[in-house]
Amino acid sequence: MSSRTSDCLEEEDGEEEEEEENYNPTEVKMSQIVMPCHSNHRQELSVGQLLKWMDSAACLSAERHAGSPCVTASMDDIHFEHTISVGQVVNIRAKVNRAFNTSMEVGIQVNCEDLFSDRHWRVCHAYATFVTQRTSTGQKKEQVEYSVAAERRRVRMVHDDIIKDLLSNEWVQQVDSSVGPSAVAAERTRVESVELVLPPHANHQVNTFGGQIMAWMVNVATIAASRLSQAHPTLRAIDMFTFRGPSQVGDRLLLKAIVNNAFRNSMEVGVRAEAYHEEGPNRHINSAFMTFEVLDDGGKPRTLPRIRPEPLEGQRRFQEATARKKIRLDRKYIISRTQGEVPLSVPWDPTNQVYLSFNNVSALKMLAARSSWRLSCEKDQVQLYTLEQKSMLSFKIECEVDVPAHRAFDLLAELSNRPSWDSHYKKCELIQLVDNDDFIYRVVTPSVRHGAMGSPTAANQAKGILQDFILLASKRKPCGSGDPYVIALRSVSLPTHPPTEGYNRGEVLCAGFTILETKDNKSLISYFNQASPEVLPYISTDIAGLSSSFYHTFCSCSQYLTRNRL
Fold first, then answer.
1. Whole-angstrom Cα distance, residue 181 to residue 187?
2. Where is the HotDog ACOT-type domain (predicted)?
3. pTM over 0.70
4. CA–CA separation, 48 vs 217, rounded Å?
5. Cα–chain-centroid distance for residue 238?
6. What SS3 state is found at 92?
7. What is the DSSP string of 393-444?
8. What is the pLDDT of residues 271-328, one digit of tens each?
9. What are all long-range contacts of 329-335, with beta carbons under 8 Å and residues at least 24 apart?
10. Which partner from 36, 414, 454, 492 sits 20 to 30 angstroms from 27, CA to CA?
11. What angle do CA 263, 268, 271 make, to 5 degrees?
12. How far apart are CA 347 and CA 173, in angstroms?
């Protein structure tokens, strides 16, 4: 764990330097030392206790922003990267990323600190949604988090639809739920437990503390997982907590858990919380899905017994767990991709479209927000910037044009017109209309791999070799005042368009335009690209100062926008 810890430490130090420049008045910091009363059988901090602390810090941040009481509405998926031992310190940082009409998103970062070695490492991060009765949303916070929060909200709102689409898909229907005689009946893992909500379990609004409900849910889920594995399980991830309604002091909380499906090295436990008061009806207040593993003495996940689902409802839960596992893998596969991995493109299909779109837009916004851009060269107010991050080189080209931002956005978002002003685009054809905001194009460009340095045209004439790219284009309008228009590009792969003879298949990790409205109805246009090996030759001579093709391309772009200004 030491090497991973060192990597995290370096990464967090870099993040903190940037955050110091952008003070957020809603930020709340909490530090807790882990005592034996907070730990489980392995002398590690229990996840339930950690969720209490996270929820408390996030609530304080939300209330600092709103100026009124807030309650937890949901908490997005959480993946726990490391455990925390007794005697170590948990450092939690929470801040409001964005406020919507009656809700707000709070980002939560959890780090661990070893007091004896002075080492720090990241444990997890999460995004919680809080609601308030006030309709005033207050002042916008740090721009990049504010903007990306809209993309996360977009993902939350379609999550259930993705599950339904997968369940109607033949792929899920073909999942075999038949198991051998050694399989464990799902009914044997069922757990029911009742908790009486007392004043210590309530927050300052006399509602049951959201972190307490989550801790109780983790408790029954752990028991269910233990009944299947007959061992002490480790909680690795939690799918979204969604609070459907409040509970108060005096309520009885009925907590139900059952293992929905067991895969080779992990299992999913479904948990449901219902509240009732005396003779009243049960109210469904929360549901969650938790992924557990059982570790051997070497810290490796053990093989788990299969589960035999119950008829009807059990079969439904079995198939839904399989669908959720596919979504988790898609999301992890898409969002964790780095430039060092080959290929960079991700297979596109309707079930992962929302995550690809989210990753496409948020990656460009995060790249644009970096503070380490350096001016490499400038010509007639067209500027070329570079950014070096470890083994990755990114570049930005920027200039102001006398065209309204909304019009420049409409023109640049029509990627099919780009060959008319960009000599690097020989051909651009729309091959799939995903929805009103997302499109897939095939782009053909000259190859520079074998030709004269810095001259795509010369290379193409010399060798006759072209490159093509399959690009997902995602366009977004501003989330609020000061937020730019965004046109994000990244490579995807389509089975209908495999690499073809006569073309070198290129890949783009992150590219696109941001368009910001400036004074006098003008626009500041910025083009970004994380330079993959196929893209770097087009710009390397400009970065080295040996040519200024970037200037001529952007001049052509400006002329195209001006011609079509009306």
1. 15
2. 24-136, 187-298
3. no
4. 8
5. 14
6. strand
7. EEEEEEEEESS-HHHHHHHHH-GGGGGGT-TT-SEEEEEEE-SSSEEEEEEE
8. 999 999 877 789 999 999 999 999 888 888 899 999 999 888 888 888 888 878 877 7
9. 330/355, 331/77, 331/355, 334/359, 335/359
10. 36
11. 160
12. 21
Q: How far apart are CA 310 and CA 197, in angstroms?
A: 32
> Any idea which residue has 């993309």 for tokens?
151
**All residues at 6 or more sequence positions from 256 whose CB lies less than 8 Å from its CB, including other chains:** 190, 191, 192, 220, 271, 272, 273, 274
Residue 64 phi, psi (nearest 5): -65, -35
Which two structure tokens, joined as six digits, stand for 404?
A: 């309204």
Q: How many degrees, rounded to 5, is the angle at CA 316 between CA 314 and CA 318?
A: 70
Over residues 40-95, the pLDDT tens digits come to 888 999 999 999 999 999 999 999 988 888 888 888 888 898 999 999 999 999 99
* In contact, 99 and 152? CB cutoff 8 Å: no
CB-count exposure of residue 297 (10 Å: 0-12, 13-18, 19+): exposed
Residue 546 one-letter amino acid? L
Collapsing DSSP to helix, strand or coil, 533 comes out as: coil
Report helix angle 143-167 to 353-368, nearest 10. Answer: 170
> In 3D, which of 232, 184, 238, 212 has the Cα closest to residue 48?
212
**DSSP label of 544:** T
276 SS3 class: strand
Among 143, 152, 150, residue whose Cα is nearest residue 76: 152
CA terminus-to-terminus distance, the chain = 59
CB atoms inside a 10 Å sphere around CB 565? 12
With vertex at residue 296, the alpha carbon angle to CA 290 and CA 300, rounded to the nearest 5 degrees, is 70
What's the CA gap between 273 and 283, in Å, rounded?
8
Tokens standing for residue 212? 């307490």
Length of the chain: 566
- Picking from 436, 349, 423, the residue whose alpha carbon sits closest to that of residue 166 is 349
